[in-house]
Design a protein that fits this description.
single chain; about 250 residues; alpha+beta; minor pseudopilin epsh fold; Helix Hairpins; two-stranded antiparallel ribbon; 8 helices; binds fe (ii) ion
Length: about 250
């Protein structure tokens, strides 16, 4: 994991004490950890299932072509799910744990499947988030709480976009670029290698972009910077705000 831009200053906001704890939240010691896959539920491993795309393959043409979307979802993401389920067959007791729980505590996973859970569980989680935070009606300026937090942390949306795109471009080989909330309740831009998830480092993924070549090569070939730039045309700020709200209710 590379931390590219730690934000300065004070935490974004005080975390309010939750009035109720959703039953789907994981209890980890005394802390309530927000599910990462969705704002309100974790990713099941009994068995892991490929979620449907929330739009048509050709719905994100402003940034990503239909063939890439189809291959990316139906082949790449599907393969992570299949491989995760195959690995868990060797240790079926693990199926009672969520994908997030396994990734947060990889050392507790039997060594013979640990790398597979890391790669395929991470791939399943990362892509599940990715599909949700894009929309055919997305793009434009951020709205709501995330707009305020971006301005407070990075100065402006343009400055944030520039740093995020640079962090995505700097990831050598395959990986992801993320906006995360760290343990100090601050926003931070990081990139991760391969299918590593920020939750492996105790960071909560607010939004992320896939910079594996499979995410952009058909349309953009080696022009990752152009892909990173166009991707903002489909960013789903409403969904990102739901993720911000979910994590702001987390009991630290
Ligand atoms: Fe991908």
């Amino acid at each position: 994991m590379s931390v590219l831009f730690a934000c300065q200053g004070t935490p974004i906001a005080d975390s309010p004490t939750p009035t109720a704890t959703p039953a789907t939240q994981e209890t980890f010691g005394t802390a309530q950890l927000t599910p990462a896959a969705y704002p309100d539920k974790e990713l099941s491993a009994s068995p892991a299932q490929l979620p449907k795309l929330p739009y048509a393959d050709n719905a994100l043409e402003k940034a990503i072509d239909a063939e890439t979307m189809k291959l990316h979802h139906d082949r790449h993401h599907a393969t992570y799910v299949e491989n995760l389920n195959e690995a868990l067959q060797k240790h079926p007791q693990l199926k009672n744990r969520s994908v997030e729980a396994m990734l947060r505590d990889l050392n507790s996973i039997p060594e013979d499947i640990r790398e597979s859970v890391r790669n395929n569980g991470g791939g399943h989680l990362n892509h599940t988030i990715f599909w949700q935070i894009m929309s055919p009606t997305g793009g434009g300026q951020p709205t709501g709480e995330i707009a305020q937090q971006i301005n407070q942390t990075f100065g402006s949306f343009d400055a944030f976009k520039k740093q995020f795109n640079e962090a995505g471009g700097d990831r050598f080989g395959s990986g992801w670029v993320w906006l995360v909330r760290n343990a100090q309740n601050q926003l931070q831009i990081v990139n991760t290698a391969n299918q590593d998830s920020p939750i492996m480092e105790g960071l909560y993924p607010i939004m992320g972009n896939d910079v594996w070549e499979h995410a952009y090569y058909l349309r953009y070939q080696n022009r990752r910077a152009e892909y990173l730039n166009n991707w903002w045309n489909v960013v789903n700020w409403s969904q990102i705000n739901r993720r911000v709200q979910a994590v702001s209710q987390q009991k630290s």
